Amino acid sequence: MRHRWRWPEDTERGSVVAEFVMVTALLTALTLAVLQLALALHIRNTVLDAAAEGARYAALADSGLDRGAARSRDLITAVLGPAYATEVSASYTEVAGQPGVRVRVLAPLPVFGLLGMTRGLEVEGHAVVEGLDDE
Known about the structure:
Blueprint: H1 15-58, H2 65-79, E1 87-95, E2 98-112, E3 115-128
Antiparallel strand pairs: 1-2, 2-3
Helix pairs in contact: 1-2
């Protein structure tokens, strides 16, 4: 039987390609996870800002709950689309001991791309009701 003599580095042949594939797959997964988190935070911040703006609009002296909810719905639809503005409600509440308005929004929370939990994100915006004092 004949023995074939090999150089010591021949045993490592092909390991660079395997390492490259493993590291690339890991970095790709990590990058996609960070992008998904950024998308979810963007949607959350946009919906939260729209709810707060709707509450401020509803709290104006010449406005009302319906107009505040409509304002939030319009802002969400303009930025994210109508699927994120389906459940918007406004009600009167107390804010820091003063009469106020609360706008509540239930929106989808993306988990994988734009797919995710239908009612996974719930945010509220509050504002103190403005009044006209006759003095």
